[in-house]
Amino acid sequence: MKLKLTATLLLAASVAFAQQNEVNRFQQYRPIWENGTLAQKDSLATALLGEVKGYNTEQEYRTTMNLLYALGHEEDQKQLGVQAKKKFPKGSLTRDAFVSDVFYKAETSEAKEKAYKELTKKWPQKNFVGEELSYDYVLANLAGTYAKEGNATKAVSYLSEMKERFWRGNGYLPVAQTLLAAGDTTAAAPLLKTAMDDAYYYISLPEEQKDNKARFASMGYASSMSAYVGILVNQGKHAEALDLVEKALVVAPEQADGLASVYYKLLINANRKLEAFNILRGLYAKGQFGVEDDLKTLYTALNGSLQGYESFNTGLKNELLVAIREHIKEKETFKPAPAFELLNLKGETVSLASLKGKVVVLDFWATWCQPCIRSFPGMQAAQTAYENDDDVQFLFINTWERDKEYKKNVVSFIEKNKYPFEVLYDDQKDAETGQVMAAKFGVNGIPAKFVIDKEGNIRYFLTGSTPNVDYIKMEMKELIEAAKKPYKKG
């Protein structure tokens, strides 16, 4: 047993070392695949393909495939993938292709379960030390499908097979939410508690032990905590729920915003009205205007009437406005926007040159990007506010899609959600650099938003987003109105 364990540890260490070397190699060529000319990219691709005969590991093939994709040589990447799969028929590339082409395309839980069993038979997890997460993704998806079909027993059973503690909350939480929506609190509660406890474990680690996994795991604390506390509240266990939240805020004060909505309601129930009011005030001052009814109620309870409320409310909105203006000042820039001509959903060409004289808002997004999608209701509200302003144009630039059927998926997504957006496909590569438009604009992550003035200059560049509709609406108004004015340095 000891010899077997030692061998396993040595294998894991050697795999990790090899993977790190390949990561370093990928980054070595970053200047070329990110900013090189088309000629430089083609030259590097040719050189890489010339090295292939000397490859001995699947990781070498995978790294070169990733590089070829980054260089815009998708066909070469596909051909190399075919070679690698022939050389390593039981390797991770054939496994991943099976997962993508068979498991994820299965439409029912029974079909997915059959594919999962075939996966674990042909590519047993023990043969892929250090790649447990690849199997956890599949398990989470399978469990989620069973949950949606109402089979909680199967869903919970497959979740229990997940190995990576730092990530399993991402499988547990969606399944628990699905079960909660179906009224199955009994099955959902333990899942939420596990996800919550996992996140708490990583949050509580000493600072020197907090790696990227720990930081990732802690991000789900507020969501799992809020859902679990909701169950306790429905069971009438308000004191227990309040105690959990307050302990959480001690160890993870950075989660305060995520827990604020549930916290203030618990404080109201505990008759701690002033504390609840202060939290509500903070939420409202950050643009969460949906809490106004509760804010009014507490204002009246604490002051005896609504007298002075309007002035108070105006002060909070002015406070938010000042914060937004300070925030966008940090995002200010001034440089010519790269020219573009892209096709919209109707196949019509839309160019930046044709929009000269208008303030143009670009929103780079993808169908798989959840932060992008969460911001869309707010972006829709902002667009609606300017629907009668002929001097403003919103463009939603679909980029970085991973599916071959991306155009069909984009149309389906927009129609399903009834978004009145002008969507452009970012799939036209520059003849000189081979870059798509996102790269030309310097986008490294999405969502990414640019506000371009009437003369074609980028005035603001923002990354990330919030699901807060009122905040987005106010922020976009400030950005657009500022871009309408002549640029003043400083």
TrEMBL record:
Pfam families: AhpC-TSA (PF00578). Residues 1-18 form the signal peptide. CDD domains: TlpA_like_family. InterPro entries: AhpC/TSA (IPR000866), Thioredoxin-like_sf (IPR036249), Thioredoxin_domain (IPR013766), Thioredoxin_ResA/DsbE_sf (IPR050553), TPR-like_helical_dom_sf (IPR011990). Residues 331-485 form the Thioredoxin domain. Gene3D superfamilies: Glutaredoxin, Tetratricopeptide repeat domain. The keyword Transmembrane does not apply. Keywords: Signal. This is Redoxin domain-containing protein. The lineage of its organism: Bacteria, Pseudomonadati, Bacteroidota, Sphingobacteriia, Sphingobacteriales.
